[in-house]
Amino acid sequence: MELNTYVMEAIARQQLAERRIAAMREGLARAAARPRRPVRVTLGLALIRLGTLTLGPHRPLVPRAS
C-alpha cells in the first residue's frame, strides 16, 4: 500500500501546522512566566539574611563611637 504524493504533502502540512501552534503556545507561556532571579542575587540575599540573623536581635551593624 503506497500513499500518493498529495496525501503525504497534506500530512506534512498538518504536522507542521500543529508544531507551529505548539511552538507559539510555548513562546507565549515563556513570555507570561515571571523572570527568574539570577543565582548570584539569590545567594547574595541569603548571605545577607544569614549575617543579619547571626548578629542577633536589635544589634547595630556599626558600633557607636563613645
Q: Please compute the radius of gyration using only Cα atoms.
A: 29 Å
Low-pLDDT stretches are none
- Please give the count of helices: 2
Distance between the termini: 98 Å
The share of residues in extended strands comes to under 5%
Mean pLDDT: 87
Helix and strand succession? Answer: HH
Counted beta strands? 0
* Main β sheet profile: none
Count up the domains. Answer: 1
Decide which structural class fits the backbone.
mainly alpha
Choose one word for the global shape: rod-shaped
Relative helix content: 55-70%
Per-chain topology:
Elements: H1 5-32, H2 39-55
Structure in words:
This protein is mainly alpha-helical and 66 residues long. It has one domain. It is built from 2 helices and no strands. The radius of gyration is 29 Å and the shape is rod-shaped. The relative contact order is 0.05.
Question: What descriptive keywords fit this protein?
Answer:
0% strand; 2 helices; 66 residues; rod-shaped; mainly alpha
What would a concise description of this structure say?
The protein is mainly alpha-helical. Helix content is 68%, strand content 0%. It has one domain.
